[in-house]
Amino acid sequence: MLEWNVQDMHARLVRSEEAYSHVNSKYHAVLDGLLKCHQWSNDISSHLLTVVPDPENPVHRDVYAMRNDIRHHIDA
What's this model's pTM, rounded to 2 decimal places? Predict the structure, then answer.
């Protein structure tokens, strides 16, 4: 009985480790995608701020506010 319980616990541990590995690989794929999106957003917003240099322009204000909002969430 004790041997069966040890084998059962080992089998469960192996399944848990396999599930963790799978979730970890999915997490890294999502993280890579988010990093690419963030870089793309940062590049486009920098370009827009260069194209529209007037701080009173609504586009400039919106892009600047978006960048600050993203920066705030990253720092948190």
Answer: 0.68
